[in-house]
Amino acid sequence: MNRPLDRDLTGALFGRSLLTTHEWSVADLEALLAVATRFEQIDRAGGRAHLLPDELAYAIFFDNSTRTKSAWAGAAARLGMHPVIVDGSSTQVSHGETAAETGAMLGMNAHALGVRHDLILGEGNSFMRDVLRGITDHLASMAQPGENPRVVPVVNLQCDVDHPTQSLADLLWLNEHFGGDVAGRRITMSWAYSPSYAKPLSVPQGVISLLTRLGAHVTLAHPQGYELLPEPMEWAAAGAAKSGGSFRVTDDMDDAFTGAEAVYPKSWGPHALMAERVAANRDGDGAAMRAIEHRALEMNAQHRDWICDERRMALTGRDGSGDALYLHCLPADIGAEVSPGVMERFRVAVAREANKKVYVIMALLAAAKVPDLAEELNRAVDALAGD
């Protein structure tokens, strides 16, 4: 077991929502991951952590999900909460209810809120901020004099800018794989071909803006036309400069894989076409949205050779040993993003990577809502050690 959780560092997370990792200090992120690690240790030892019994953990998804939905439900249930997950299209948002109104209503009834809103640039993260404002304003207005407002944290379960529970789960997995941390490690985030759909930009943006802050040497690779949003790129460059890591961009996938210790090949949509969808979506023009998607897939098809296969994996490793760790947020387009052989080689590894998200979400919910969390978890670990 790790050393006891620090009361002050863990306590600093109380009442916090997570909308991007960039808004949390490195110390806060490390404290959160220490809590997540502790929850994983307790869970794998067969312990229970019902720290929030009978509370409602509500999540709204405006896009499809398998792993994040199940991670939210699994995290909430392990904490003794009641998870409820709804399709965003089934809410009154589709009928014109504002995000702040939605937040106020959910703040009355829920004890924690997760949101996925990732399809349209400029919308998802703004929506989450308005929801949080609605919750905060409502709870403040309902508090009696001298009474602290009830805490209802908002967790970003993927937006147009960031996918923080994913990148934090990736970081937990990388730390475990490297037996420490990612400082000084060579990690590649690469575009890869997909014939399925124009995927959000938020996973690569989240990965590069987080790992650079922790001293990693990060390479971003993509063909021309697949640039990421300017702000996360600025965050990545600034993070690398401050941490002693590095950040570079290349349009050569072989170059990006050469010498890498971990590779994360994943598709995302062409920037210009993703931006073009904003107006079509605002106008409710379904035909234009379908045409843009078709053009995006045509553009993707010009880069079918951007695949993580055995030849490229052989380029990896500091000494050319080909032993880099393969990462993916899943589901991967097998035969397009990654060869069947590489996926089979790392099938168990990517499942373990995905499982880390359960503990990240547990940590976010508990740290925001349990006043003496460090003491609670330290006692739980001591009890398991005594058994």
Describe the secondary-structure layout.
Layout: H1 7-11, H2 26-44, E1 56-61, H3 67-78, E2 82-87, H4 99-109, E3 112-117, H5 124-142, E4 154-159, H6 164-178, E5 186-191, H7 202-211, E6 217-221, H8 230-243, E7 246-250, H9 253-257, E8 262-266, H10 271-282, H11 286-301, H12 310-313, E9 325-326, H13 340-345, H14 347-369, H15 373-386
Parallel strand pairs: 1-2, 1-3, 3-4, 5-6, 5-8, 6-7, 8-9
Helix pairs in contact: 2-14, 2-15, 3-14, 4-5, 6-7, 6-14, 7-8, 10-11
Helix content: 40-55%
By DSSP (H or I, 4+ residues per run), the number of helices equals 15
Any low-confidence stretches, pLDDT <50, length ≥5? none
Largest sheet: 5 strands, parallel
What portion of residues belong to β-strands?
5-15%
- Computed structural class: alpha/beta
Radius of gyration: 21 Å
Mean pLDDT: 94
- Alpha-carbon distance between the termini? 14 Å
The largest beta-sheet arranges its strands as 7-6-5-8-9
Order of helices and strands: HHEHEHEHEHEHEHEHEHHHEHHH
**DSSP, total strands:** 9
User: What is the overall shape?
Assistant: globular
